[in-house]
Amino acid sequence: MRVLVTGGAGYIGSHTCAVLLNAGHEVVIVDNLSRGHKRAVDILAARAPGRVRLVQANLSDADAVRSAFEPGVDAVMHFAAFANVGEGSADPNLYYRNNVAAIMPLLDAIRAFRVPRVIYSSSCSVYGQPAENMIPVPETAPLGPISSYGRTKLIGEQMLGDLGAAMNAAGQPIALSFLRYFNVAGCEVPDAKAAAHGHLGEDHDPELHLIPLVLRVALGRAKSIKVFGTDYPTSDGTCIRDYIHVSDIGAAHLAALERTKPGETLACNLGIGKGASVKEIISAAERVTGTKIAIELAPRRVGDPARLFAKPELAFSRLGWTPHFTEIEKIIESAYRWFRDHPNGMRS
How many percent of the chain have pLDDT more than 90? Predict the structure, then answer.
C-alpha cells in the first residue's frame, strides 16, 4: 500500500514509517520539519530506495497537501501535532491552530481522494483523570480531557468521526482507527540492514519525557532528575505510568492498517497494561546503565494523577496486536543505547 504519514519525520511517525517499510509498504511523508528531523527521513529513504517520498509542507497548505495525495493513497496515518501539555496550557491558541484548524486541508483531501483507511494518533489524555475504579483505563472510560492538548486530540477524533459518517453515508466507506496511547518510550532496535543506514531515536527540544531525562543523568549530561511528588497513594509514593515501546506503537498502526475494514470505526488503547512508578524507572535505569542516578525532590505538579495505565485487551482482540517489549528494562535499554551513541541526537 501507499501510506501517507503526516509527521513522519518525528519520533513516533518515523518509527512507524520504519515498520511500514519493513512490511513492504510505500510511505509519503508530509512534515514541515519544524519539530521533526530531515535526518530521520534520510535514514528511511536509504533503507528503502524509491519507497519514501517527503513533501515538506504545513498541513494548512491545501495545495501542498493535495499534491501529496496524488496520484492516490491507500491510507492516511496522522501523527502531526504539537504534544507538550505545558506549552498547550500556556498558549492554547497555538495548539488549536496547529492540531485542529490546520488539519482541514487533510480532511478535505481524504474525502476528495476517497481514502479507505485513516489511522489517527490519539492519546490517553482524552480521558483526563479517570476515576480510580476506571484504572486500568478501558475505552469505555468517560472522555474528559483536562488540558488544551488533550482537548485537541479529542476534537480530532470527533472531526474524523463526523467525516467518516458522511463518507459512509455517501457510499465512500472508510475505516477509522483512533489509537490512544499512553507513555511512549524507547528507541529503534535495528537489524543489520537497518543499522547500515543509521538508527532512529528520540530527539525533542525541549525534552520533557521521563526516561530520556533519567538517561541524561546516567550519561553525565545532567546533574539530577526531578521527582515531582513522593506522597502519592502508591507503593513508593511516586506516580505510576504505562510505558510502551515506540516500535510497538508502530506495529499497532500496521495492524490497524491491515486488520480494519472500510465502514468500521475503532478506538482502542495502546499500552502494556501495567505501570511503573517514577522511582521504579530510575532504579531500572540504574540497573541498565550501571550508574547511580541523582534525584531532586520537587512538589507535585498540578493535574498529575497517581496511577494511569491502560487496559489494552481491545487492541489485542481486534488488531491481533501484542507488545513485544513488556519489561521496562528492555525499553530503557533500547533508549540508553541510542542516547549513548548519539550525543547530539538526530544530528549525530
Answer: 93
Could you give the residue numbers annotated as active site? 149
Q: Which of helix, strand or coil describes residue 155?
A: helix
Helices and strands counted in the chain (H then E): 13, 14
User: In 82-204, which ranges are continuous DSSP H helix?
Assistant: 85-90, 92-99, 104-112, 148-169, 192-195
The residues that bridge with 75 in the sheet, in sequence order, are 3
Q: CA 201 to CA 345: how far, in whole Å? A: 8
Closest CA to 188 of 198, 176, 178, 201: 201
Please state the separation of Cα 239 from the chain's center in Å: 21
**Which residues are registered as beta bridge partners of 206?**
none
Domain count, the chain: 1
Q: Sign of the CA dihedral 8, 89, 241, 132?
A: negative
> What range does the domain containing 64 cover?
2-347
- 235-259 pLDDT, tens digit per residue, is 999 999 999 999 999 999 999 999 9
CA distances 116 to 39, 112, 247, 334, Å, are 30, 11, 24, 35
Burial class of residue 162 (count of CB atoms within 10 Å of its CB; 0-12, 13-18, 19+) = exposed
Q: Round the CA-based radius of gyration of the chain to a whole number and report it.
A: 19
| pTM greater than 0.85 (yes/no) | yes
List, for residues 16-56, the tens digit of each pLDDT value.
Answer: 999 999 999 999 999 999 999 999 999 999 999 999 999 99
The CATH code of the domain that includes 183 is: 3.40.50.720
